[in-house]
Amino acid sequence: MGASAKTMIPTTTRAITRILRASLLKFIALLFLFSLFSLLLLKVDDLISKIALETKTVAGHNLAQTPWHHFPVKHFNESNTIYGKAFHFLKCTHFQCLFGANNRQYNTSPNKLKNSHNFTTNITSTTTCPSFFRWIHRDLEPWAESRIAMGNLMEAQRSAAFRVVIFQGRLYVDFYFSCTQTRAMFTIWGLLQLLKRYPGMVPDVDMMFDCMDRPVFQKSKYRTKKRPETNIQPWEEEFKSIKRGSEAVNWDKKLNHAYWRGNPFVGSRARTDLLHCNDTNKWGAEIYIQNWIEEAKVGYKKSSLADQCKHRYKIYAEGWAWSVSLKYILSCNSLALLISPQFQDFFTRGLIPTQNYWPVKHSDLCRSIKFAVEWGNSNPIQAARIGREGQRLMERLNMDMVYDYMYHLISEYSKLQNFKPMPPKTAYEVCEESVLCYADSISKQFLEKSVCLLHHLCRVIYGEPIMILLRVGFREIERL
Ligand SMILES: *[C@@H]1O[C@H](CO)[C@@H](O)[C@H](O)[C@H]1NC(C)=O
Ligand SMILES: *[C@@H]1O[C@H](CO)[C@@H](O)[C@H](O)[C@H]1NC(C)=O
Ligand SMILES: *[C@@H]1O[C@H](CO)[C@@H](O)[C@H](O)[C@H]1NC(C)=O
Ligand SMILES: *[C@@H]1O[C@H](CO)[C@@H](O)[C@H](O)[C@H]1NC(C)=O
């Protein structure tokens, strides 16, 4: 009994020690797991904050305004919590292109290639490029010998809002600054449509985009005339409606003087000088001030464009930079009087004086307008013909032509790069789904309307952003 008691005590102690040791081990293990878990939570939290606060988006999230141009701060209508934002960005930026069905279409699977070949032969054999496409070579001439180096691009980055790299048929974007209104979104959308129209054909390129109308560092008043911010229908619809409007009044019935309506206070000498020519008897011109801000309040009803082809002569004066109004003026079947323009739109290269427009000298403005009006009134057949030719040029300006031009321009540009384009580490892939994911309901309508199905023409166009792309994408071109 005594002996057993003697052995009992050490056994108990040993057992207790063992239990204690085991508990301690368990405790340490638990502590370890707990720390690991906390650490993980912290890391996840970190990651979520990082995603929410650093993801730069096509809509302009987490992007500052361009220092050289101010516009109203954008408000986003999404969750305000860090988690809500992170979820939104994860979904739209990080996952959408992985699972998007349309995304596959940019790939060059054998099946797609076969179709694209079919598509290609149609492009090249059934449509001939307008002769002014030759300007592409002229425009790119400054780089023909020196070629475009990465250094040139890095220099351009200082005034760029975003950079687009097309790599193996996919589109990657690196965002630097927010763009006014919805320009970044629509420009990128236009490029995505290009990839879809020309599957497997768009070469690898690296391009910097500035989204202002005019490539100078100067404060300007913010303007309110871009789609979808104004009530302007997509171009093909709009053209038809203008044409119908223009057919309602034949040349003889049109008012026999020149007409201009717009905002003269946009820092443009041509426009302020025009105000002095407002006298139908003395100068043969009628000038009206259009207040876009007032118009915006009443819903742009008064400025119905199709209603404005009642004059034989329509004056075009550049605004802050080029103005969308040129297209509408040329579409009217009236004689377009162009005050010596300084900025080039891609289709302005198709303009030929006395063939599809009449040039007006800025230095002798009122007299020059008077001369044109008097010439037209005494040569009505010729004047009407020039007006018709202007309208015909605009009629050809459909989406096929715009994308064709974009394709050729980008292809020629890519040949001049003396490096192999690669998406930078900070860039994300952008696809249709990810753009739509960020679009508000109005933009979404416009975007979806302009989707090009493979082998189909765009049902409706959204011309403006592509013009902007063509104009601002290659800033130097404008200075030529
Ligand atoms: C956000 O959008 C919803 C519907 O999409 C709308 O009802 C709501 O008023 C919007 N909120 C803000 C702050 O714009
Ligand atoms: C070209 O397209 C047509 C119709 O889209 C199709 O029927 C035809 O098989 C295609 N041809 C080739 C060579 O892929
Ligand atoms: C190519 O053009 C022909 C003739 O214009 C047309 O019948 C065919 O459908 C076109 N194919 C495609 C794929 O657009
Ligand atoms: C130009 O003249 C017309 C008619 O006299 C007038 O109604 C209009 O307000 C004038 N425009 C400007 C800018 O002064």
UniProtKB/TrEMBL annotation:
<keyword id="KW-0472">Membrane</keyword>
<keyword id="KW-1133">Transmembrane helix</keyword>
<comment type="similarity">
    <text>Belongs to the glycosyltransferase 90 family.</text>
</comment>
<dbReference type="GO" id="GO:0016740">
    <property type="term" value="F:transferase activity"/>
</dbReference>
<keyword id="KW-0808">Transferase</keyword>
<protein>
    <recommendedName>
        <fullName>Glycosyl transferase CAP10 domain-containing protein</fullName>
    </recommendedName>
</protein>
<dbReference type="InterPro" id="IPR006598">
    <property type="entry name" value="CAP10"/>
</dbReference>
<dbReference type="Pfam" id="PF05686">
    <property type="entry name" value="Glyco_transf_90"/>
</dbReference>
<dbReference type="InterPro" id="IPR051091">
    <property type="entry name" value="O-Glucosyltr/Glycosyltrsf_90"/>
</dbReference>
<feature type="transmembrane region" description="Helical">
    <location>
        <begin position="24"/>
        <end position="42"/>
    </location>
</feature>
<keyword id="KW-0812">Transmembrane</keyword>
<feature type="domain" description="Glycosyl transferase CAP10">
    <location>
        <begin position="201"/>
        <end position="420"/>
    </location>
</feature>
